[in-house]
Amino acid sequence: MDHTETARHDAAVTASPVRYGSYFVVWIALVMLTGLTVTVAGLHLAALSVLTAVAVASVKAFLVLNHFMHMKHESWFFRLMLGVAILTLAVTVLLTFTDIWYRARTFRQAQDTLLLPLRALRRSRTSRSLS
Amino acid sequence: MSTSIAQTAEHVHRDDVGSRLGMWLFLFSELLLFGGLFLLYAVYRSEFPGDFHFAAATLDTSVGTLNTLILLTSSLTMALAIASLRSGSLRASNWLLAITVSAGAAFMVNKYFEWSAKIGHGLYPNSDELVMRTPGENVFYGLYYTMTGVHGMHVLIGMGVLGVLLCMQMRKPRRSTILAGDAARSLVLPGERGVVSYARITLVYEENAEIVERGVPRLENAGLYWHLVDVIWIFLFPLFYLIS
């Protein structure tokens, strides 16, 4: 970190950029995006609806992180850490799904082995209470 | 001003950037905690798409939307509370914090009614009603209660932290006013009202400046937590309420 960067960072942190107006603009954008995502969900676009819902949610999360959580005023190190955290999550999701996509469908069986005994237990209990 | 801050920093060995870094590290662990739950949701959703759609249709979209707007607005008031504390207006900051905590309470009240309605319909994990339904629906409601429950717990913790900070911000100036008043009364002869009020105002001002200077980094870190809770809800809301 050179001198100008340090100075810029210190100025960003201590000079306290109090901009009430920009907070209201961000809030209005967030409310409008909420309206958008509810409207799109009402259109029943099937596979697209999940995609748009996650996309709109990501934009909203970016707005909150950048403006309300002051990520745009932080140094490169904070952004790097956030990037690493999000990347870790993305890699975990991707690796899990490569497993799920190429694996035989065992979930339904697993669920049945879990649920069927529960149902049997319920039935035996109700029949016992009836007799 | 700059020298006084430097002296104070030297005195108490405070590292605001370091404490913020620590807060962010904690938030990343929270991100991965909820990330794991979202992954679980994604995997089961890809396994039982039909059941998830059917079960999600029973959730009340209007209540979910209302709660989203409440949390978004509470994030705004939180950011404004920090900004006004930074600019030195303690009163405005206190009011905005109170509104933030109240919004959190309103969110939880809505959540209470929502859960009660679901439980009233016999839709809760291991209920007689749910066990007889499809595996996908069982997984959906399990995830619904776990994820909104863990999130609700975070809202409660955030309300607690903000409530404590609000009490700290509210308590000190009042006490200092009384102390300053007493000190001034014992010091100043009767009739010298101008001097009394001057001493009182100076002391109160210094006390307030100290609260602001010490309070800003604390409130900022608490604010980061509150905003993260908002970010998590931003993803929870469409995935549970809008996919039917």
Question: Would you kindly provide a written description of the structure presented here, covering whatever features stand out?
Answer:
The complex is a heterodimer of chains A (131) and B (244). Chain A has 131 residues and is mainly alpha-helical. Chain A folds into 2 domains: 1-76, no CATH class; 87-131, no CATH class. Chain A has 5 helices and no strands. Chain B is elongated. At the A-B interface, helix 2, helix 3, helix 4 and helix 5 of A face helix 2, helix 4, helix 7 and helix 8 of B.
List keywords for this structure.
heterodimer; A: 131 residues; mainly alpha; 2 domains; 5 helices; 82% helix; elongated; disordered N terminus; B: 244 residues; Four Helix Bundle (Hemerythrin (Met), subunit A); 8 helices; 88% helix
Question: Topology, pairings included?
Answer:
The complex is a heterodimer of chains A (131) and B (244).
Chain A: H1 3-14, H2 20-42, H3 47-68, H4 76-101, H5 107-130
Chain B: H1 2-12, H2 16-47, H3 49-56, H4 61-86, H5 90-120, H6 128-131, H7 135-187, H8 193-241
